[in-house]
Amino acid sequence: MSRLALILFGPPAAGKGTQARMVGAALRVPVISTGDILREAVRNETELGKEARRHMESGGLVPDELVDAIVKERLQRTDCAQGFILDGYPRTVHQAVFLESAFKDGDLKIRVVGISVADDVLIRRIAGRKSCPKCGKVFNFGDAARKDGAVCDECGTALVSRADDSAEVMVQRLKVYHRQTRPLVDYYQGRGWYVEVDGDRPADEVNQSILKAVQGQVGTMSAVAR
Ligand code: AMP
Fold first, then answer.
1. pLDDT tens digits for 115-147?
2. pTM here?
């Protein structure tokens, strides 16, 4: 039976990470976040981390070859055997083509849910965003002042702002999104694999829409939900 590769697609700060965690828990499949893997490499100062860092801090994309290799290795692990969710990958048409070619035995059923949020809302969200460096949970405080001194409600760790969440870097990340990543919508629409949900709503509502969209696209969840 083919396994579901569910791609959560959208601009930075659309809520992909939060939704990926919620959908992953609902479907009981792992979430593969290339951003999280790269941030860990940066923290550990590995060769990959050193190379990735300068692209990430300037708001650009890490070269396709590096990210493709990370994803290929990660998806071969046994926990992905029943399906998985991709958060932040693919981000270029090259990566999308790679994903299909790396699994061309027909083993992968790719479906894409786009989370749509207007640019001005994204920029406001970033100003009030912090995340937990331990468990990765993202918090949106809405207004920037309230985030000072906040701790994670899951594990009590002091929350941090991401290095690439400054206003200037965010503007650059949005430009990169529109130029390099957004064309994937046409690519996946052409394949009939794309549906979009309105991401400018409370996380629970967005989550319900995503689960419904996945059901509509896959027909049955039984391939992944155990
Ligand atoms: P994210 O946490 O998904 O917003 O990713 C943070 C940063 O990591 C991005 O701005 C990129 O610099 C880099 N990154 C994450 N995923 C990819 C990808 N699929 N391709 C290239 N760069 C990526």
1. 999 999 998 888 778 888 888 788 877 655 566
2. 0.86
Judged against a pLDDT cut of 70, whether residue 222 lies above it is answered with no
Summarised one tens digit per residue, pLDDT across range 55-89 is 999 999 999 999 999 999 999 999 998 899 999 99
- Closest ligand 1 atom to 60 CA: 12
Q: Are 2 and 224 spatial neighbours (Cβ–Cβ below 8 Å)?
A: no
The structural architecture, per CATH, of the domain 3-118+167-225 is 3-Layer(aba) Sandwich (3.40)
Residue closest via CA to ligand 1's atom 8 equals 35
Catalytic member of 39, 74, 91, 125: 91
Sorted by sequence, the CB contacts under 8 Å of residue 96 that are 6+ apart come out as 90, 184, 187, 188
Domain ranges of the chain: 3-118+167-225
User: Cis bond leading into 90, ω under 30°?
Assistant: yes
220 CA distance to ligand 1 middle (Å): 31
DSSP 8-state symbol, 151: B
Does residue 173's CB lie within 6 angstroms of at least one atom of ligand 1?
yes
